[in-house]
Amino acid sequence: MVGLPMLARSRQLLLLTLLAALCTAGAAFAIAKPSEGPATANTSDALYDRFCLACHGSAGDGNGPALPLLWPQARNFLSGDYKWRTTSSGMPPTDDDLRRTIRHGVPGTSMHGFGDTLSDSQIDALIAKLKTYAPRKFRREAVPLPTPKNRKADAARGATLYLDLGCEKCHGTEAKGDGPSASQLKDDAGREAAPYDLTSVPLRRPSAPGDDPTEQIYMSLLTGLSGTPMPAYEGAVSEADLWDVAGYVQSIRATMAAEGLNKSSVMPAAAKAYDQTYKVMRAGYYPGHGNERDRAIFGGTIAPQGPPQKGLTPAQSSLDAKRCSRCHNQQARDWKGSLHAGAGSPGLTAQLLEMERRGAWKSLQSCQRCHNPLAEQSPVLSAMQRGAASGYARNPNYSEELRDQGLTCASCHVRKWQRFGPPVAKGSKRLTLPGYPVTELAIYERSDFCMPCHQLPSRTTLAGKPLLNTYKEWLEGPYMRKGVQCQHCHMPDREHTWKGVHDPETFREGVALSMIAGRGDSGTVSVRVRVKNAGAGHYLPTTPTPAAWVSIELLDASGERIKGAYAEKRIGRHLAYEGGWKELEDTRIPPGESLELAAAWKSGRVSKAKTARIRLRVEPDEYYERFYLRRLKNKKLPTNERGMFEEALRRTRDSQYLALERLLPIRHTAKPSRRE
């Protein structure tokens, strides 16, 4: 495990990517829709924690750990106000309204539809949980409003009414969400609330297959969207007029569907406003996250442990992972071979030493925040860690040996000598220890525990994308809506291995190859390979440090390569530093999607071709190799740092492997051969 370069203003932009390299591929498995007895606990609290807390927060106030990554922000359940209702303004939604939203989700947002994951009884349990956040509101009877039936909308008349009713002031004359008042709109919490682009496809309102979109638009006009500037027109505008406006909006949506939606029309002002709430680099944790106990261990700057508590044994009074192994032997064995244990690598240490020489303490601690985050692993303490007003001071308890252990056991589990961990597993045979200072927290079994070191804010973007976006890739991917957390794939059975792109078997489980090859009537050989992200719950690979190559080469009857008959494609986010960071290419594969390589060679050179050899090779530390080579060109590099970079370079090259190889016969027919 190695570090990233600290160059110019971009020093801390890539600091957190290292640990996320382990998250490149997850186990590929399918989860069937549960019956009334699913594996997931049916309690409303357990369901909420697994499926809702990430966005809506532990308090139900919409301030979950994903807060800065969402647009629009998740619903605040405490008010009891819901956008998607069939009831009058100010009234609570019906159970069917809530059921529809949970089951079908809200297209165009991060709100998944959980209908293929949760059973009816589980959805009902979640509805009961939501009502507990605003019990006074839900005491009122929720009566759905009727909708017109079998009425034909006059879209042309609706276009005129759209202007007469002033809709264009917010939504714009072309309904793109860019009206003259758009930038001044605020929601009930005082946040910027840009109006919807009404031409967008699909319709934002939760809808079941077969629902009449005109009726859905009509209902939004009739009831309004509580908590937003969108008013209710019930009683103010006639049913016939609202129906025609709905018909007009549906007509322009239909046009956009036919022409193709411009995905760049994304409410930039509002997104920017939400991005400004992202203060992890300054505050140490994500705003509004969890409760006080969660915040004690959630990714912030770790305070010095201080003197050990009385009554602790020598092993319990140590931060050394070797001491932890005396009682947690299996976890320690797993950890020793993991990337977490290698986070304090020679490549990183060489950079830390260079920062220490220059007194670049802020950059040093920024790196160490994820690579070796204990206060005792740093040569200096910040003002926050010392309780001072400003500046840095030498750390009297600094340990180089502890620094070199990287992300050690105590990094995640010890704060002021108090132990934290997940709830005891059912059927555990571990002996209890009376008086042992341990606190069980559910966060250890949720993906947001991993978020601080596996997500960078969207303000640290390159080519419009965060440099590290793993958590959001998971949040908006297929695994989140299945309830699959990072730990399910990377810590199965609570293993502490965190296998990912560096592990060939884990990478193989994350991909699927399909191939086709053939020789046409003219003698031309054509080969097409498709690489699918079939197992990872995020992009493959998710970080910019690894790269994979899919290649095609033609072989003759003896298995020898045919000169010139070779093609390859890089898979990954290709970054370079040329006086500033540049993205040269991004060919990462989103969950469930594929990347394709196709090649064709004319008959002359390839007349002897009998087989196409398909290979998928992986360089888990490809970016680092380029970086270390650049650093080693510096003739003024101190001897000890040079030795560390040379060792780091050797490790990066040793990490390369051939993940897959397939031989595909080339058939001498017009119909190509196929292999899945």
The overall number of domains is: 3
Shape, principal axes of CA atoms: globular
Q: Which structural category fits the helices and strands?
A: alpha+beta
Helical amount among residues, as a percent range? 25-40%
Low-confidence stretches: 1-40, 260-288
Strand tally: 17
- The overall pLDDT, averaged over residues, is 86
Structure, explained:
It is a single chain. The chain is of the alpha+beta class and 676 residues long. It has 3 domains: 1-33 and 294-306 and 317-424 and 436-499, no CATH class; 72-266, Cytochrome Bc1 Complex, Chain D, domain 2 (Orthogonal Bundle); 504-620 and 655-675, Sandwich (Immunoglobulin-like). Helices cover 29% and strands 14% of the residues. The protein has 25 helices and 17 strands. The strands form 6 sheets. The protein has a 4-stranded antiparallel β-sheet with strand order 14-9-8-17. 42% of the residues are buried. Mean pLDDT is 86; it is low at 1-40 and 260-288.
